[in-house]
């Protein structure tokens, strides 16, 4: 089972992964124009993202155009939009569960309950990492395939942009965090810890108090058994004989 320091590290990795996935979803540079062939005189660089297309012009003007039509988009772009949004949502849910499953926190219930919560958080991070990795890989494959196609003019060719690399790194952070949190599986020796608080000192204190109460109850029962007025003491057998029996 990972230590508290490892869980804090995993929590930080998951937080960075979610922030990176959110930034990658909003960035407009999923693919940028490649500097091949004749240079375009009207614009210096063109970028295309999931939600908008942008261009740098030679005059220094930067303009962006939103993609309003969803049905007109290719399948890989529609899939990238959906999966990236779902990745951010599932990752945020996993972050909330991870906050409850950390060992260093007092909330979240017993050790076993916190372990199960940490495992659930690891599952959410794994799903979020896969949802972030799939669109980045598919988008990169489409860009490279189009770049290597000889039928497409060189002025219309693109290469992967910075947002794709941010998505890959974010997916790696989420998957690494999921592995650490999934190792929080409760062992068999942690079973008795469910009956008390999540703090070990309180558990030991309660166990000692319970044993002392049991000992006191046993002593009281013994005293009541031998000294209770309603119970006569066993008489000595020798008192039933007279002196003549011994003569």
UniProtKB/TrEMBL annotation:
InterPro entries: Claudin, Claudin_CS, PMP22/EMP/MP20/Claudin. It comes from Chanos chanos (Milkfish). Keywords: Cell junction, Cell membrane, Membrane, Signal, Tight junction, Transmembrane, Transmembrane helix. The keyword Hydrolase does not apply. This is Claudin. Belongs to the claudin family. Claudins function as major constituents of the tight junction complexes that regulate the permeability of epithelia. The lineage of its organism: Eukaryota, Metazoa, Chordata, Craniata, Vertebrata. Residues 1-24 form the signal peptide.
